[in-house]
Amino acid sequence: MYSFDYQRADDAQAAVGALNAAPDAKYLGGGQSLLPTMRLRLAQPSALVDVTRIPALKEIAVDANTVKIGAAVCHADVASHADIRRVLPALAALAGGIGDRQVRELGTLGGSIANNDPAADYPAALLALDATVVTDRRRIGADAFFVGMYETALEPDELIVAVEFAVPERAAYEKFGNPASRFALTGVFVAKSADRVRVAVTGAASSVFRATDLEAALAANFTPQAARGVTIAPDDLNTDMHASAAYRAHLIPVLAARAVTHANG
Q1: Fewer Cβ close by (within 10 Å): the C or N end of the chain?
Q2: Which of 143, 166, 189 delimits the end of a domain?
Q3: 35: Cα separation from own chain's centroid
Q4: Is there a single domain that holds both residue 60 and residue 130?
Q5: pTM of the full predicted structure?
Q6: Which domain holds residue 38?
Q7: Are residues 69 and 32 part of one domain?
């Protein structure tokens, strides 16, 4: 690794100011993606602005309709939070299945979605739960937030403050994980509300996406059988050393059916 400046921000305004004061500066959350990238010299920021001690970014608020989680809340705290486990257990379970214990203790919600790794778990939750990303300057719906591989709608100096998740009637997340990294080779998050079903898929393509054919089938009949009856085209899916596009296409309805079974209790 090479030399860089380190600053710890006390509030969102100070963090944005510090980022803009240094060329090629980066926000630092848990560092689970950024620091390995720096060690490989694939990124060389001149400064890191640590946002993990900003009080507003560490807050969790839960009511019957919304779960609001600060961007600097780590995965382990989401997984163990009693109110999240009660109101939105699918989200707590997803957080508890990210990486290993060290990753869950250090990695943050904001860092995960800002990085938008194609195989990350949280983007599927945001998309399926129709979440809103709250930044230091605006509110961005999940459908508009994830743009492409490692790309989001964030401006270069924009700071994620929190994410607001709508609480559905039923929800569950199932993934086929890499046994080493526990990233999703394919992951499917299913959420049923009073008037619609949303299904989000991660790990299968260049970025998280909604499976609209599954949404239509499950809106008509929220059963595992309905999910298994959907055929997913492999055309735009990934092929790599771990799985082919055809295999991932096969996994999507299988995992969706498991998620529906889990959601239905």
Answers
A1: C
A2: 166
A3: 19
A4: yes
A5: 0.95
A6: 5-49
A7: no
Q: Which token pair is 178? A: 């890499």
Largest CA distance in the chain: 57
Nearest to 21 by CA among 29, 33, 13, 10: 13
205-259 pLDDT, tens per residue?
A: 999 999 999 999 999 999 999 999 999 999 999 999 999 999 999 999 999 999 9
**Distances, alpha carbon 68 to alpha carbons 31, 57, 88, 105, in Å:** 22, 10, 11, 19
CA distance linking residue 161 with residue 78, whole number of Å: 16
What does the pLDDT look like over 117-143, one tens digit per residue?
999 999 999 999 999 999 999 999 999
Rounded CA-CA distance 97/117 in Å is 16
Report pLDDT for 20. 95
SS (H, E, C) the chain: CCCCEEEECCCHHHHHHHHHHCCCCEEECCCCCHHHHHHCCCCCCCEEEECCCCHHHHCEEECCCEEEEECCCEHHHHHHCHHHHHHCHHHHHHHHCCCCHHHHHHCEHHHHHHHCCCCCCHHHHHHHCCCEEEECCCEEEHHHHEEECCEECCCCCCCEEEEEEECCCEEEEEEEECCCCCCEEEEEEEEECCCCEEEEEECCCCCCEECHHHHHHHHHCCCHHHHHCCCCCCCCCCCCCCCCHHHHHHHHHHHHHHHHHHHCC
